[in-house]
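Risk register update: the risk of archive-format incompatibility is retired. Evidence:
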Amino acid sequence: MAPPLARGPGALERRLLQAAAEGNLQLFKRTASALDGGKGRLRDAVEAVTLQGRGSGALHFAARRGRMAVCVYLVQELGVDVDATDETGYTPLVHAIIAGTVDTFQYLLDHGANPDKPDGQGSTPLHLAAAG
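Archived output:
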């Protein structure tokens, strides 16, 4: 069963997060365009889609799975917030650390992710990386 989303149980929202998690950049772009509806605000459309109850967005999903092409598109082309937090205060950088996706971790650091941003329990990505 697909996860419930903050914007509702829409098929497009589920498809967007699934495409991010799977690293399917072409499907991700098509779905983002459909969600935008021709308004020319792709970043806003993408950032509005989060997993209900967890707040994880497309960059969280892509970072956790090491989907570099999607991460690059989100960060460099759309300009999404690399320090966006989910409901637990985890940033995409934390998701990359937890999953051990080193290339993604380094990419996010190189593109402005804050290694000192505390999560909901006061731990920082730097602490998590050192402990892992």
